[in-house]
Structure formats: structure tokens, C-alpha cells
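Fresh eyes needed here. Kindly weigh in on this sequence plus C-alpha cells:
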Amino acid sequence: MARIAIDMDNVMADLTAHMIHLYEQKHGVRVTRESLNGHPDGGGFPIEGETLKFIHEEGFFRSLPVMPDSQEVIKSLMDKHEVFIVSAATEFPLSLKEKIDWLGEHFPYISWRNVVLCGSKTIIEADYMIDDHDKNLRYFKGERLLFTAPHNILLNDYKRVNNWQEVAEYFQLTPALVK
């Protein structure tokens, strides 16, 4: 049984889609996901730095949309492996309770014992880590899977997974999960 550490933002929760939506609501300008490719996390919007303000607002992390297929694939991973949800959440203190509540709503089968909210992921020991940030994967000693997000599109240093169906294929989950 392998131990798998899974990030939340831009892996389980579609932070980018949420920022695009909030930006459009506030400024009336629709930004495409593709136009954000290659920009730093939260960058690439017409008003630089604007979306980074969103993450400090109450309710931001509680209202993130769920990544397609993540619920089913993570549940299947838990049937065969030891899964931990790992989020560098302490940088955003408002996010702590919101992330716990979000997980309870969308992933009720994940026990509180399998949730790690930390500052630095360098303390995490597992066989695999699925994350969208180089800063979290760089020092990880196990197998590193880079989950595609606009800010990491130019990275080539890791095995890349573009979506949860590719995660299911990588871990050879039942064909029913693979479309």
C-alpha cells in the first residue's frame, strides 16, 4: 500500500476557474485559462495582483469548484492506498476552517486524520505527491506528479498529469474511472 500526498488548490479544487469567475464578476472582463499560461500563480490578469487579493477574502476557499473526476478518483485511490490531503494553508489563515469545511462537503469520506494543513511541505514523507507547484515537489523524496495548472505549463522537470483521469490511469485504477 503506497502513501499518496495530494494537494488541494489547483489539484482537487479549481482555484484558477474561481479566480477567472471572480475577476469577471468584479471587472466585467472574461479571461481565458489559456491566456494565463506561463504566468505566475494568480498572474496574467489585466490588472496584475488583483486576483491575489481574492485569496485573503473570507469565503474564497470555501467556494472553490471541485476539479472534474477528483472525487471518484480519490475515493478509488483510498481503496488501494493510504491517501493524505496536504495543503500549505497556514500562509492564508482564513483558509484553514474553510478548507476543512470544503473537504467535509465535497470529500466526506476523507477522515480528519488524513488532512495535513501546514506551512511547508518539505516535512511530508510519502511515496507519491500530486501537486501543482514546483516549490512543493522540488524537495519531495518520493515520486513527484505535477498536476497541470497555467502557472506550471512551462515546467518539464516532473511527470505531468493533466487531469484526474490521467491520475486514474497512472495508478491503474479500474477502467470504469477512465473515460
User: Anything to note?
Assistant: The longest helix spans residues 15-27.
